[in-house]
Amino acid sequence: MKRITFFIVLIFSTLIASSQIQLHAYRVTFADKNNSPYSIERPEEFLSPRALDKRARFNIPVTEEDLPVNPQYLNALQNVDSRIQLLSVSKWTNTATILCPDTMVITGVQMLPFVTSTLKVAKYNEENTNPVSGNRTNHASTLPKTDIDTTSYGYSFGQIAIHNGHLLHDAGFRGEGMLIAVLDGGWLNMDNIGAFQPLYENNQVIGTYDLIPFSDNVYTMHGHGTLVTSEMAVSIQDTFVGAAPAANYVLIRSEDTRSEQPIEEDFWARGAELADSLGADVISSSLGYTQFPDFDEYDFDYSSCDGTSICSRAATMAAHRGIVVCIAAGNEGMNEWHKLSRPSDAEDILCVGAINVNGVYAPFSGVGPSYDGRVKPDVVAVGWDCYFWASDDSIVSGNGTSCATPIIGALSACLWQALPEYNSLEITQIIRENSHQFLMPDTLLGYGIPNYWNAYINNVDTTGMAHFETEEHYMVFPNPTKDKVTVIGPDIREVAIYDLGGRCLKRQNGVASQRNSVEIDLTSYISGIYLLRIVNENGASMKKIIKIND
User: Fold this and answer.
1) At 479, is the secondary structure helix, strand, or coil?
2) Mean pLDDT, residues 98-105 taken together
3) Could you tell me where the DSSP H helices lie in 58-115?
4) Cα-based distances in Å from 162 to 180, 285, 517
5) C-alpha distances in angstroms, 254 versus 45, 251, 540?
6) Are strands 23-30 and 240-241 parallel, antiparallel or unpaired?
7) Is the peptide bond prior to 113 cis by the omega test (within 30 degrees of 0)?
8) Region 457-465: what's the mean pLDDT?
9) Which has the closest alpha carbon to 134: 215, 221, 192?
10) pLDDT tier at 478, thresholds 50, 70, 90
């Protein structure tokens, strides 16, 4: 989906003499946190119990970077001129973003002894100083009719199965106890759509935060957050099952859709800090920044994608504080920019590119590497013809790295649930190492398509593997195959072949007298990846098979 970028909404009738008057926002950088009333010895004043528990569990220290910006400095800014408006604050980068009535006032700010720099990051006039408002529609959920046989996952089967995410689910890892922070631009009608109601009934949406000034309802304005959250959280048997249906979610609006200006990166950094203070385990963000057509003060180019922007630095800091950070690569692959976007260029995060269910690179997906030469994207997921639940209460398919990112974010939460002894950076690396081209990464797919089941079984303590023993009882050969495959194992009741779109192509029952062996003919099938579902009296197992032609 096209990059979502937003603009600040403020009312300053006393400042605007005419529609031609422009107001400017500046990022103010402070020199230090001296004489702060906060202390690393009292982290409970600015970090939640959940965040502190995670810090303790993984020996992550609380440092001066975690201290809030010195409130004395913030008060001094506003003492320069009472008309200065504080828009956002970032403790990790020690900055504040302010609305400034004129250039004379910012000169006064620059003279403060603890201010090291100021940078203009937004401008606006009377036309975009109206209060935030948004239309809402009440929906009685109506499920679409479908003749697609997609086991229990419905439309979402292919986009989860390509990662063997369904096997994690079958093993009992569906995100229970994990907290996913979704940074986006709005969740229009999500609280009114029937498909999402179980989330609210089960208290899985633990909070909503609107970081856009003079806006306080994330369920208005834009529905991009609704669709990306659906890919993770919706759970309707046989229709649509998300990648982490049992996880908890916090919805953080860090963007406003009405313009594209650098201030958006300040809001993103603030959102990442909020996710950390709440104790989030995963950040899933389908937002990205390249150039800003509504801001002509200076230009951005590919050299800005080196991990040093304010949002990219915040993304890396979040990763170092116990969060698996998943960020969309952007949709510039077919445009002049061509490369990835910020903050997906950040270090130690998962930059997510897009493919289709057959593993084919989506040509719109932003291209790596980062400007300083690191492998990007890190991984890929289905973002080309990806299914999601839209804000008009319909299941639709769409394109974009926005669609790919929540799949990676949600399955990463399930994996971390399954491997709780590893820290966030280790989980991130495990995901890379269990991707299909880890040893030969490229600029289109990075390390490739993660296999989350392999990531689990290759890293779990083997003493905990007893209840997965039946998975090893089946042999499928030859694999790859040119024509037929044979399945050997105990008490085979049924074997079915699915494509990665979730359609059942063939179903074959085991013969009562020969239930230890079933042969499936794939001669007429085109080359590609298929899923083999094997059913016995105890349940079902899935195996991936590859059909090749001469």
Assistant:
1) coil
2) 88
3) 71-80, 103-110
4) 22, 21, 26
5) 23, 10, 42
6) unpaired
7) no
8) 65
9) 221
10) confident
The 3-class secondary structure across 175-237, one letter per residue, is CCCCEEEEEECCCCCHHHCHHHHHHHHCCCEEEEEECCCCCCCCCCCCCHHHHHHHHHHCEEC
For residue 260, what pLDDT is reported? 87
Query: Given this model, what pLDDT does residue 114 score?
Result: 98
**Residues 483-511, buried b or exposed e (16+ Cβ, 10 A)?**
eebebebeebeebbbbbbbbeeeeeeebe
pLDDT (tens digit, 9 = 90+) per residue, 389-423? 999 999 999 999 999 999 999 999 999 999 999 99
Q: Which tokens sit at 193?
A: 């759509």
Q: How many CB atoms lie within 10 A of CB 120?
A: 18
Mean pLDDT of the chain: 87
- DSSP-assigned letter for residue 4: P
Burial of 537 (0-12, 13-18, 19+ CB in 10 A): exposed
Of 14-18, 215-219, 384-388, 446-450, which range is least confident? 14-18
One DSSP character per residue, 136-173 reads: -------PPP----BTBTBTTHHHHHTTTHHHHHHTT-
CA atoms within 13 A on the CB side of 169: 22
Neighbour count for residue 152 (Cβ, 10 Å): 15
Measured CA to CA, the distance from residue 319 to residue 221 in angstroms comes to 30
Q: What is the mean pLDDT of residues 145-150?
A: 39
Residue that has been written with the tokens 């989330």 in this structure: 199
- Here the tokens at position 78 are 């506003």
Partners of residue 26 on adjacent β-strands: 98, 120
Average pLDDT, stretch 322-338? 97
Could you tell me if residue 410 is left (phi over 0), alpha (psi between -120 and 50 degrees) or otherwise beta?
alpha
State which H helix or E strand residue 85 sits in: strand 85-90
Note the pLDDT of residue 145.
36
Asked if residue 27 lies in contact with residue 95, where contact means CB atoms within 8 angstroms, the answer is yes
Sheet holding 528-536, edge to edge: 504-509, 494-498, 528-536, 539-547
Q: Which residue from 414, 455, 463 is spatially nearest to 434, judged by alpha carbons?
A: 455
